[in-house]
Amino acid sequence: MPAAYSYDERDLLLRLSEGDTQAFTVLFDQYKNKIYTLAFKITGSVFLAEETVQEIFTKLWVRRRELPAILNFNAWFNTITRNHLFSLLKSQAARENREAFYAGQASDCPGADNGILLKQTEELLRKALSALPPQQNKVYYLIRMQGMKKEEVAVRLNLSQETVKSHLSKAVKNIRAYCIAHKDSVIIWLLYFSMLI
């Protein structure tokens, strides 16, 4: 790769939005291991983990023209990955339900438990967010849900950047603690918390 090539993420996104394959390769190298590790922990399958990496980056390439408008690429990319893994889990659960039904064992199907677990996970996260102190909730929502940068949140809430960083760190810890206290699900640990920091 030429020495003059920029590794600035904003520049990479702009280059990628214009179809620059070198920019795509740089982003692929930066994020592939994180996605693979998370997908493998969730699915327990090397094949599905590798397939997840391919599909996530295919989505990135297809949606590359959206990139210049994205303020927080990491949050946006995490959302795409999380949604893909949820869809994958739901597909697995549906397939297991069908297989169990045709085998005459629908009542004992582990896939049904997966579907229930996904709904419980979403509800648990919603409750964890509502349990946060107001300022932590605002900071977390603006950064993690709206994709704003810490600097932008600091200006919007009239706080120092260090205070915003502290609120976000405390919010993540409080969400983790809440979920640990209310559910011992491996899926919750892996699918949410490994992507929060």
Task: Explain how this protein is built.
This protein starts with 8 loop residues before the first helix and ends in a 6-residue tail after the last helix. It has helices at 9-17, 21-43, 46-62, 73-102, 110-130, 134-145, 150-157, 161-182, 186-191. Helix 3 crosses helix 4, helix 5 packs across helix 8 (161-182) and helix 6 (134-145) packs across helix 8 (161-182). The protein is flat. The protein is mostly helical and 197 residues long.
Unreliable residue stretches = 1-6, 105-112, 184-197
Main pleated-sheet profile: none
Overall pLDDT level: 75
Helix proportion range:
over 70%
Q: Count of DSSP E strands?
A: 0
Q: Please identify the structural class as seen in this structure.
A: mainly alpha
Approximate strand percentage: under 5%
**Shape by Cα distribution:** flat
Roughly how many Å is the radius of gyration? 19 Å
**What is the ordering of alpha helices and beta strands?**
HHHHHHHHH
Number of helices: 9
Distance linking N and C termini: 30 Å
Question: What would you say about this model in short?
Answer:
The protein has nine helices and no strands. With 197 residues, it is an all-alpha fold.
